[in-house]
C-alpha cells in the first residue's frame, strides 16, 4: 500500500473495464476544498488496486475525514477484503485520518422496471425494499457481511439518499446477459409508451440535439439555474461545471459531454453525461418551463443513450432515485421519469465508515447532527 502518482492512477483506471468517475484522479481537481491523494495496492510489484482519497480537515485540529467516493477500485470479489482494507486504513491513519468513509461500487439487489411500477401501484408498498428483487447479489451480501465483521458501520439513509452518493440508482443495461450489445430498437422497445411517444413528438416538432463546447456552459448554467428555481434546489455555481469540464476532458477526450436540445432558436433542455470505460452516466440536467410540449428532455436523453450504445457502453446510468415508492413523495415524479426508460433499479452496498479515533469520530457525528438540525 503506497501513495501513487496521478499517471499511475490514471493508467490503472484506463486498464479496468470501468471505474466510477468519482475515483478518477481528475475528480480531485473538481473538489479543491478537499486535499487529495492517490493510493495504490501492489502485488509482486504490479499495481492491482487504486483509490482516490479526499481528505477534509476538522476545524482547529490536523485530523481528517478520509473519503473514497464510490471506491476504492479493488477486487471486491476477493473473499478476504481485510487484506485490502487493513493496509488502507493503516496508511490513512498515518496520514492523520480520524475516520475513513467509502462507498463500495458493489450491487446488492436489482429490480426490473415492471417490478418498480407494480410497487408504485400497490397501496401496501411504501419502499422499494418491500418489493422482492429480481436479483440478490452473492458478492454484495458477502461484502456487506465482511464490512460488519471488520468494524465498518453503514451510514444512515434518508429515503434512499445517503449523506454522500446515492445508494439506489436507475440504470439501463446496454448489453444482453451474454454480453452482446443491444440495438437501439431493442432499447427503445423496452421503454414505456409515453417515453416512445415523447421521443417521436420531439423529433416531429424539430427538436435538434447537439454536442456543446466549453463556450456553451454559460447557456447550460442559465437553464440549470432556471430549473433549480422552479424545482426548489440549490444550484452549483457555473465555475463548478467549468472546472469539471476542464478536469475530466483534460484527463481523457470526451469523458464529459455537454448536450444541448434546441427547438428553433430556443434552448429547451441541456444535460451533462460522463463516461469511463463501459459505464456511461447522466450527471446533470436542465429544462425550460416554456415549450415543454416539444419534449426536449426526452430527446436529449434518447440521444445520450444512443451515444452510449455507439461508444460500446454496457450501462447507461441515470443515477440516484429514492427508495420510497409512496405516491405522495415529492421524488415520485423523478422515479417515474426514470422507470419509463425500461431499465432497472439497482441498490449498492451504500457508504460505510470506520472510526480510527473514536472520540474525534463521535465529535464529528455530533457536529453533523447539529448542522443538519
How does this structure look, described?
The chain folds into two domains: 2-103 and 351-372, 3-Layer(aba) Sandwich (Aminopeptidase); 108-137 and 169-348, Gcn5-related N-acetyltransferase (GNAT) (Aminopeptidase), CATH 3.40.630.30. The protein has twelve helices and 16 strands. The chain has helices at residues 6-15, 27-30, 82-94, 113-121, 138-149, 184-190, 193-205, 217-231, 238-251, 296-310, 332-339, 358-372, and strands spanning 2-3, 35-43, 46-57, 64-68, 97-102, 107-112, 135-136, 153-154, 168-173, 208-212, 256-263, 266-276, 279-287, 315-320, 344-348, 352-355. The strands form two sheets. It has a nine-stranded mixed sheet. A seven-stranded mixed sheet has the order 1-2-3-4-5-16-8. β13, α10 and β14 form a beta-alpha-beta unit.
**Total strand count, please?**
16
Tell me, what's the shape?
A: globular
CATH topology of the largest domain: Aminopeptidase
Number of distinct helices: 12
Class by alpha and beta content: alpha+beta
CATH architecture term of the largest domain: 3-Layer(aba) Sandwich
Overall residue-averaged pLDDT value: 95
SSE pattern: EHHEEEHEEHEHEEHHEHHEEEHEHEEH
Cα-to-Cα separation, first versus last residue: 39 Å
Side-by-side strand order of the widest sheet: 7-6-15-9-14-13-12-11-10
Write the CATH homologous superfamily of the largest domain.
Answer: Gcn5-related N-acetyltransferase (GNAT)
* Helix percentage range: 25-40%
Strand content: 25-35%
Instruction: Write down the domain tally.
Output: 2
Protein name: Peptidoglycan bridge formation glycyltransferase FemA/FemB family protein
Pfam family, one: FemAB
Family: Belongs to the FemABX family.
GO molecular function, one term: aminoacyltransferase activity
Amino acid at each position: 500500500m503506497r501513495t501513487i502518482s496521478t499517471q499511475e492512477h490514471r493508467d490503472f483506471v484506463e486498464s479496468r473495464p470501468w471505474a466510477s468517475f468519482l475515483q478518477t484522479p481528475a475528480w480531485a481537481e473538481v473538489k479543491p476544498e478537499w486535499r487529495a491523494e492517490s493510493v495504490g495496492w501492489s502485488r509482486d510489484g504490479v499495481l492491482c488496486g487504486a483509490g482516490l482519497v479526499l481528505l477534509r480537515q476538522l476545524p482547529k485540529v490536523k485530523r481528517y475525514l478520509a473519503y473514497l467516493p464510490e471506491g476504492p477500485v479493488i477486487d471486491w470479489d476477493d473473499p478476504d477484503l481485510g487484506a485490502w482494507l487493513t493496509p488502507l486504513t493503516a496508511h490513512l491513519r498515518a496520514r492523520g485520518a480520524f475516520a475513513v468513509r467509502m462507498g463500495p461500487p458493489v450491487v446488492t439487489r436489482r429490480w426490473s422496471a415492471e417490478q418498480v411500477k407494480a410497487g408504485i401501484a400497490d397501496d401496501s408498498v411504501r419502499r422499494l425494499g418491500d418489493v422482492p428483487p429480481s436479483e440478490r447479489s452473492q458478492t454484495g451480501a458477502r461484502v456487506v457481511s465482511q464490512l460488519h465483521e471488520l468494524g465498518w458501520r453503514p451510514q444512515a439513509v434518508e429515503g434512499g439518499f445517503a449523506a454522500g452518493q446515492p445508494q439506489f440508482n436507475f440504470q439501463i443495461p446496454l448489453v444482453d446477459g451474454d454480453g452482446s450489445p443491444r440495438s437501439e430498437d431493442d432499447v427503445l422497445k423496452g421503454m414505456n409508451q409515453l417515453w416512445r411517444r415523447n421521443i417521436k413528438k420531439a423529433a416531429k416538432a424539430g427538436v435538434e440535439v447537439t454536442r456543446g463546447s466549453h463556450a456553451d456552459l454559460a447557456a447550460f448554467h442559465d437553464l440549470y439555474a432556471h430549473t433549480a428555481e422552479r424545482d426548489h434546489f440549490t444550484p452549483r455555481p457555473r465555475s463548478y461545471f467549468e472546472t469539471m469540464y476542464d478536469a475530466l476532458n483534460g484527463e481523457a477526450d470526451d469523458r464529459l459531454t455537454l448536450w444541448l436540445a434546441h427547438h428553433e432558436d430556443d434552448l429547451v433542455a441541456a444535460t451533462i453525461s460522463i463516461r469511463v470505460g463501459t459505464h456511461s452516466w447522466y450527471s446533470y440536467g436542465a429544462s425550460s418551463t416554456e415549450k415543454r410540449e416539444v419534449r426536449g428532455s426526452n430527446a436529449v436523453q434518447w440521444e445520450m443513450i444512443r451515444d452510449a450504445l455507439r461508444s460500446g457502453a454496457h450501462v447507461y446510468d441515470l443515477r440516484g432515485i429514492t427508495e420510497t415508492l409512496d405516491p405522495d413523495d415529492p421524488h415520485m415524479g423523478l422515479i417515474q421519469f426514470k422507470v419509463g426508460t425500461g431499465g432497472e433499479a439497482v441498490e449498492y452496498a451504500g457508504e460505510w465508515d470506520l472510526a480510527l479515533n473514536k472520540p474525534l469520530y463521535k465529535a464529528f457525528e455530533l457536529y453533523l447532527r447539529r448542522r443538519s438540525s
